[in-house]
Amino acid sequence: MDLTSFSDQISIFMERFKENIRLFLEKKEIIKERDPGLEEHLNKAYYEWKKAQNYFNNATEPELIEHATYLIGAAERKYMYLLRRYKEEAVEKVT
Fold first, then answer.
1. pLDDT tens profile 18-30
2. Three-state secondary structure call for residue 28
3. What is the pTM of this model?
């Protein structure tokens, strides 16, 4: 395992940890449930894309490689779509 994939795994772990803490605090009614914004969706899509890339890098069977390729494509398209929307919103806020 190279340092890049380890770093990606740590980032994914931290995002999941933060999400689980938030869900716990909402369940205990310590904080109110919030509507996730576009930026949060964008961040999640980025981590899904990285996770798919990591899956591809570790796949060994032809069927799993094909599956990983599909996941990368889908995650990348989702991320690019959200990134475009995020940029459009930023431009609208400026004007």
1. 888 878 877 777 7
2. coil
3. 0.61
